[in-house]
Specification:
By secondary structure, the chain is α/β, with parallel strands linked by helices. It has a single domain (4-26, 43-170, 189-224), classed as Rossmann fold (3-Layer(aba) Sandwich). 29% of the residues lie in helices and 20% in strands. The chain has a six-stranded parallel β-sheet, with helices on one face. The protein is globular, with a radius of gyration of 17 Å. The chain binds 6-phosphogluconic acid.
């Protein structure tokens, strides 16, 4: 199935669209009592999206939402590189949510212990299907090497098919990370890639043809890009790009 591939003239219009997407799904829940479980993306791109979400000041919409992360750097929650800190500063600190709605990855803990704890937290909060936790929505970014979450090309983490989350390592800095695995990502009801900026244009052109279809050419190269291995079992896949990131298509 080809993804819902959209190009926006500016990250602001992309962010407004994602805000309206969120409002729409929260106003029309499939189950009014069930929690809505979102895994937030890290990096810098999502900040503009989270700042838009912070403008949704309708507390009734937030009451059922539970926030998880697709990955986290193994740093304390007040560290400038923390994905939790970025989401907290730009969004979560500005809306009315209870502490028990926020399920951050404890980057400050021992990674071997934390990967077990977070897997248990996901399993105990989410609906299980295909023997795998099912997120309602996963936001993802993509690196210039085609990584997503903290699944880097040719890493053991990207090959993991049993565990829900793993310890990963940034190939350049060696920084340890905790990341969801592809089986959990691909089990989500909806996955949205948020990709902006000229530095992503080359990798986008290698992954997509001009019609937003996955290019069949360079199949072996595609298989090396973890972002191109995000193909939900039955969920919706959206690639939301700005003009700069899609400029080589
Ligand atoms: C992280 C992210 C990572 C990020 C990409 C894009 O923890 O860094 O999970 O996958 O989304 O590296 O990052 P930018 O949005 O900063 O380009």
């Amino acid at each position: 199935m080809n993804p819902d591939f959209r190009i926006f003239n500016h990250i602001q219009t992309l962010a407004e669209t994602v805000k309206h997407d969120l409002i729409s799904v929260l106003r029309n829940p499939t189950s009014p009592t069930q929690a809505f479980n979102i895994a937030l993306a890290g990096g810098s791109t999502p900040r503009t999206i989270y700042e838009q979400w912070a403008m949704i000041q309708d507390d009734s919409l937030w009451s059922k939402v539970h926030f998880f992360w697709g990955d986290e750097r193994c740093v304390p929650p007040d560290h400038d590189e923390s994905n939790y800190k970025m989401a907290y500063d730009s969004f979560l600190s500005r809306i009315d949510v209870e502490e028990d709605q926020i399920h951050r990855i404890h980057g400050e803990e021992n990674p071997e212990a934390e990967v077990q704890r977070y897997a248990h937290e996901i399993k105990s909060h989410l609906q299980i299907s295909n023997n795998t936790p099912k997120f309602d929505w996963i936001l993802l970014g993509m690196g210039t090497d085609g990584h997503t979450a903290s699944l880097f090309p040719n890493s053991p983490a990207v090959k993991e098919q049993q565990l829900y989350c793993v310890i990963a390592q940034h190939p350049q800095t060696g920084q340890k990370r905790i990341s969801l695995t592809l089986p959990v990502i691909n089990n989500a009801k909806k996955i949205t890639f948020l990709v902006t900026g000229e530095d992503k244009a080359q990798i986008i052109s290698e992954i997509f043809s001009h019609t937003g279809e996955f290019t069949v050419a360079k199949k072996n190269k595609l298989s090396n890009y973890p972002a191109a291995q995000v193909k939900p079992q039955s969920g919706i896949l959206q690639w939301y790009l700005d003009e700069a990131a899609s400029s080589l298509l």
